[in-house]
Each structure stands twice: as C-alpha cells, then as structure tokens.
Amino acid sequence: MSPKQAHFVKNVSLGIIKVMHIIMENSHPFSIPQLKEFLKGSKHIQFKGVNRKEKYNWIEQMLTGFNYFRLRKKDKMIVKGYLMKMTGFSDSQITRLINKKKKFGKILVSSSKKNKFPQKYTSQDIDLLLETDNNHERLSGKSTKEILEREY
Length: 152
Fold this sequence. Notes:
Shape: elongated
Largest sheet: 3 strands, antiparallel
Radius of gyration: 24 Å
Number of helices: 6
Mean pLDDT: 80
C-alpha cells in the first residue's frame, strides 16, 4: 500500500447498503475550504479505519501535509474535525495524537505493555467452576463458595 492510501470502512444505512469497504487515496491535496465542504456534506456517513497503525500513519501524513502546527486556530478545528470524521476517533483521542506528533515528531502505535495481574486460576479450574455453577442452577456467589469449601 502506498503512503497516500488508507483503508476505511464506510457505514451507510440506506436500506440496501449497510457496510461498504472502500480504499481512499489522497492523490491530490485538499484545501481547508474543501475540507469544510466535505464535513458539511458527510454528516450522516461514518468512516472507520481498518487498523490503528494505518489510522495513525494517515493522521500523521495529514498533519504534516496541512502544516497543522502553523495553521490558525479556526483552520486547525476544521482539520481536526476531518481527522475525527475519517478515523472515527473522538476529540480527545485526536488531541492526544496531535500532542504526540508535536512532542515527538511522530505518532507511533504504542505496544500494549500494560500491567496485568497474574492468572490465579487455570482454564481447568474455570471449567470446573462453570460445571459446578450449572449443576446447582446458578446460585449466588456466596452459596457456590460454601459448596466448594464443603467439597474441598
């Protein structure tokens, strides 16, 4: 895929077409007034990118292409609205990504190195708990706990 291409899913609910997949190419640059007209005409259409990495790359290209950090506030709001419309991201998500671009010069997909709790129960334990719960017709948690303590 070329750097000017991005995959987007277009959701249209006109009765016949529910979801249509399109490939959008930014082969010619838009101007701010064109973006403003696009936003006016596409109120009932939703766009969503295929994956986060593609969306982040596309947002980065748009910010660079429009010289976002040199625009007036009014024009920044139009570009930001366009980014929100095309990616399906919220205002706060776009703001966070713009701040990343400003601070680091790039928008990178962060790896999910979130803290995770250690797994306490094995899949076998969970299966046995489900079986016990189903055999006793879904009693309350406290009752199930007492049953398991008596069996132990």
